[in-house]
TrEMBL record:
<keyword id="KW-0660">Purine salvage</keyword>
<dbReference type="GO" id="GO:0006166">
    <property type="term" value="P:purine ribonucleoside salvage"/>
</dbReference>
<dbReference type="InterPro" id="IPR050054">
    <property type="entry name" value="UPRTase/APRTase"/>
</dbReference>
<comment type="pathway">
    <text>Purine metabolism; AMP biosynthesis via salvage pathway; AMP from adenine: step 1/1.</text>
</comment>
<keyword id="KW-0328">Glycosyltransferase</keyword>
<keyword id="KW-0963">Cytoplasm</keyword>
<comment type="subunit">
    <text>Homodimer.</text>
</comment>
<keyword id="KW-0808">Transferase</keyword>
<dbReference type="InterPro" id="IPR005764">
    <property type="entry name" value="Ade_phspho_trans"/>
</dbReference>
<dbReference type="GO" id="GO:0005737">
    <property type="term" value="C:cytoplasm"/>
</dbReference>
<dbReference type="Pfam" id="PF00156">
    <property type="entry name" value="Pribosyltran"/>
</dbReference>
<protein>
    <recommendedName>
        <fullName>Adenine phosphoribosyltransferase</fullName>
        <ecNumber>2.4.2.7</ecNumber>
    </recommendedName>
</protein>
<comment type="similarity">
    <text>Belongs to the purine/pyrimidine phosphoribosyltransferase family.</text>
</comment>
<comment type="function">
    <text>Catalyzes a salvage reaction resulting in the formation of AMP, that is energically less costly than de novo synthesis.</text>
</comment>
<feature type="domain" description="Phosphoribosyltransferase">
    <location>
        <begin position="36"/>
        <end position="148"/>
    </location>
</feature>
<dbReference type="GO" id="GO:0006168">
    <property type="term" value="P:adenine salvage"/>
</dbReference>
<dbReference type="InterPro" id="IPR000836">
    <property type="entry name" value="PRTase_dom"/>
</dbReference>
Amino acid sequence: MDLKNLIREIPNFPKSGILFRDITTLLSDPESLHYTIDILAEKCLEFQPNYIVGIESRGFIFGVPLAYKLNVGFVPVRKPGKLPAAVYSVTYDLEYGQDTLEMHQDAMAAGSRVLVIDDLLATGGTAAATAQLIEKASCNLVGFGFVIELKDLGGRQKLPEVPIVSLIEY
Ligand code: PRP
Ligand code: MG
């Protein structure tokens, strides 16, 4: 199955000059959704994670079914102010301004094997910040999984030296 055919391309969104890769067309097609989760699971099984860490919000869409399929726990990394208990927090630079991500301090025992899932690897800022959260929690980052990777933006180079799975490359 060629997943690329199911990613809709929207020119000039969210701003002029950007070609947006829209996963909603993949998600609404039952066969493609099944296939995406199955192939992610197949490629990520060997990392033997204890937890899937999914990044708000599109990382939740793929992270939870993957955790269910691999029979491991799911831990959300959230935008600031959303998690109720004590959090680790990482602030990172964007093209314009900064962003912050948070994770519950007690979500995973130290030393847990963690696989990070998101829909998209673009500049790598979001995934790199998540790797820092996992380090703060003294957990063992074993890999990253993305549905889409935008190669030209060089996100991979920003990430720690662990295996990176991406299903669709542009
Ligand atoms: C998008 C995407 C990734 C991130 C990738 O999330 O879902 O999480 O950007 O970009 P980067 O590699 O340059 O950091 P966004 O912040 O738009 O929010 P959303 O997931 O809530 O839609
Ligand atoms: Mg996102």
